[in-house]
Each structure stands twice: as C-alpha cells, then as structure tokens.
Amino acid sequence: MLDKFDKTRNFSTEAEILKVLGHPIRLKIVAGLCTNECNVKHIWECLQLPQATVSQHLALLKNKGIIEGKRDGVEVHYSVIHPLARKLIASLMEG
After folding, report:
1. Residue 70: alpha-carbon gap to chain centroid
2. What CATH architecture is 17-94?
3. Domain parsing of the chain, residue ranges
4. Which residues belong to any copy of the HTH arsR-type domain (predicted)?
5. Cα separation of 47 and 28, whole Å?
6. pLDDT at 19 over 90
C-alpha cells in the first residue's frame, strides 16, 4: 500500500503552512482575511483580543509568507497571499 505514495514529494512547505494555521487565532485571522483585506485594529476589534496578541500572530503569518501588509498612510492592510492557505481555508469553510 505504501508504494502508492508520492516518494519524490516531501511536503515540507505544506506541513509548515498547516503548523502555522494550527493555532485557532491564526486560523481565524487567515479565514477573515481570505474574504476581506483589513487593518490590525479591525482584526483585534473583531476577535476581541489585545492588539499585542493580534500583532504577534500577524507577524508570524507574515514571516511565513501567508499574509502581506500594504501600508496606506498610517494603516497597514493585511491580505492572504499564499495560495495553499487560501485553498485550505476554502476547504474548511465548505464543511
């Protein structure tokens, strides 16, 4: 049965994305950003979490290449840029 698995693919990128999205707060952030680009204030108000907590999660998501921030004056608007993260969220939302 194991001979049917793809032996050439190591899935390290996929595993890393799954690990980062494995935290409920980060999963909520990415799910929200898949529908709307928004700033950090809007995110922490929606999640009812301290700004510092949300900022830490955003920094990790940004460092892993899942989201990006675009500056608009004094605000930074975040959006999901990693296609696998978008696919995973879409799949989760279907169920």
Report:
1. 16
2. Orthogonal Bundle (1.10)
3. 17-94
4. 6-95
5. 8
6. yes
- pLDDT cut 70: percent of the chain above it: 95
| Cβ neighbourhood burial of 26 (10 Å; 0-12, 13-18, 19+) | buried
Mean pLDDT of the chain: 92
User: How far is Cα of residue 71 from the mean position of the Cα atoms in its chain?
Assistant: 18
Q: Which residues lie closer than 8 Å to 18 by C-beta, 6 or more apart?
A: 88
Helix residue ranges, H only, the chain: 12-21, 24-35, 40-47, 51-63, 83-94
Residue 5 has pLDDT above 80, yes or no: no
Between CA 14 and CA 66 the distance in angstroms is 12
